[in-house]
């Protein structure tokens, strides 16, 4: 540490360059840490489990091209035929599809005199809907076939039993979420007894704050467009899709509004987040590159200006290693000052983003790893100029003005 005092004196005599270096590191650190946090936060959103058997589930949105009085019978016939297709694990009808942006929400309350305790996505279908989605039942039981009902619209108004997601149960009963089985919830003020809990089932809106709140009822709806949810056996999805469309189009007046695998649904739902995360990673890479070049250029310029001083030190017996160590220590000191100011700025920026845009606050672990990354970046950028300066013979260095 004998070089510490000379370094501080040198920085004092050239404080403008030192302040510029510190400012560059501070700005880089502030942007870097927040950009990395936002990028990984986007990736975490994309990676969230939907709860479905994503690789094997697809849906077909279509109509029931018969008179209103015949729609219930036609729906039952379609479900029987679809379940009989070779390669189908389970086929159901549903009022909505997760993450498509098209669905329903309901108000959920524990007590009848409370307007609501929370909100939830809603799915109505037949007793096989859980199997067709491929979600995991973790408490209670599935619907019984005799519990199925059929109505034209608003199935939650006539449902008497419900299955809820674990996230919804935890929001209402906290750690005792399993106690919800057998309890009566008030779904839009209509009492429904909870018979089971599923692990995860996301709602129709991926950016919704309660996207993992879900209520399922065994009530089929026949009005307008119906969604047939079909879960194929592994490796059979393409074949099952073709057979499904072939059967459906046998009915005169049938219109296919949408056919989509859940893989495509999820990719479309999170396309904005995916694009944003890629953009942020591009910004991070560009920022690291520009910063590295900036530190390299500034370090090289500062070293070139001191070639004569380097020559004098070499003539007085300083080794090449000592010259390299001197400039790397100088860089470390400046970088540490920059990191210190950068941490403060990063915290302020993170809190501002949290208050204004309702984003999460950057954890301290990001500050720690960001500090180590920035230190390594600075040391890597100064290493080559310092090594080149140490290679100059004393006689040549002292002649350079």
TrEMBL record:
GO terms for cellular component: plasma membrane. The chain crosses the membrane at residues 15-40, 279-297, 332-354, 366-387. It is found in: Cell membrane. Residues 283-394 form the ABC3 transporter permease C-terminal domain. It is a multi-pass membrane protein. Its main location: membrane. Keywords: Cell membrane, Membrane, Transmembrane, Transmembrane helix. One of its GO terms (molecular function) is transmembrane transporter activity. It holds the Pfam family MacB_PCD. Residues 44-238 form the MacB-like periplasmic core domain. Belongs to the ABC-4 integral membrane protein family. This is ABC3 transporter permease protein domain-containing protein. It comes from Pseudoalteromonas luteoviolacea NCIMB 1942. The lineage of its organism: Bacteria, Pseudomonadati, Pseudomonadota, Gammaproteobacteria, Alteromonadales.
């Amino acid at each position: 540490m004998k070089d510490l005092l000379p370094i501080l004196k040198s920085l004092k005599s050239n404080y403008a360059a030192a302040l510029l270096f510190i400012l560059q590191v501070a700005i880089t650190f502030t942007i870097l840490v927040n950009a990395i946090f936002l990028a990984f936060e986007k990736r975490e959103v994309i990676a969230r489990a939907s709860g479905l058997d994503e690789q094997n589930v697809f849906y077909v949105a279509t109509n029931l091209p018969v008179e209103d009085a015949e729609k219930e019978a036609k729906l039952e016939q379609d479900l029987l035929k679809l379940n009989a297709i070779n390669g189908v694990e389970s086929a159901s009808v549903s009022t909505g599809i997760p993450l498509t942006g098209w669905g329903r929400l309901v108000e959920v309350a524990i007590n009848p005199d409370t307007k609501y305790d929370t909100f939830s996505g809603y799915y109505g279908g037949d007793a096989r809907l859980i199997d067709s989605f491929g979600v995991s039942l973790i408490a209670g039981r599935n619907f019984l076939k005799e519990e199925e009902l059929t109505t034209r619209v608003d199935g939650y108004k006539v449902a008497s039993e419900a299955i809820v997601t674990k996230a919804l149960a935890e929001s209402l009963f906290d750690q005792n979420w399993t106690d919800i089985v057998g309890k009566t919830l008030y779904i839009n003020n209509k009492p429904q007894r909870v018979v089971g809990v599923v692990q995860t089932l996301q709602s129709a809106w991926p950016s919704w704050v309660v996207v993992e709140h879900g209520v399922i009822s065994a009530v089929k709806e026949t009005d307008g467009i119906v969604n047939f949810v079909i879960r194929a056996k592994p490796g059979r999805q393409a074949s099952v899709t073709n057979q499904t469309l072939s059967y459906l189009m046998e009915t005169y007046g049938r219109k296919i509004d949408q056919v989509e695998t859940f893989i495509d649904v999820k990719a479309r739902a999170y396309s904005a987040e995916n694009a944003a995360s890629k953009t942020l990673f591009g910004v991070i890479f560009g920022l690291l590159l520009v910063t590295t070049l900036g530190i390299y250029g500034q370090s090289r310029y500062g070293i070139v200006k001191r070639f004569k001083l380097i020559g004098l030190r070499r003539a007085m017996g300083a080794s090449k290693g000592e010259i390299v160590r001197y400039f790397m220590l100088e860089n470390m000191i400046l970088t540490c000052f920059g990191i210190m100011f950068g941490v403060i700025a990063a915290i302020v920026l993170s809190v501002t983003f949290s208050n204004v845009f309702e984003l999460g606050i950057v954890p301290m672990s990001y500050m720690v790893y960001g500090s180590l990354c920035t230190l390594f970046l600075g040391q890597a950028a100064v290493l080559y100029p310092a090594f080149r300066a140490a290679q100059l013979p004393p006689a040549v260095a002292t002649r350079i003005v």
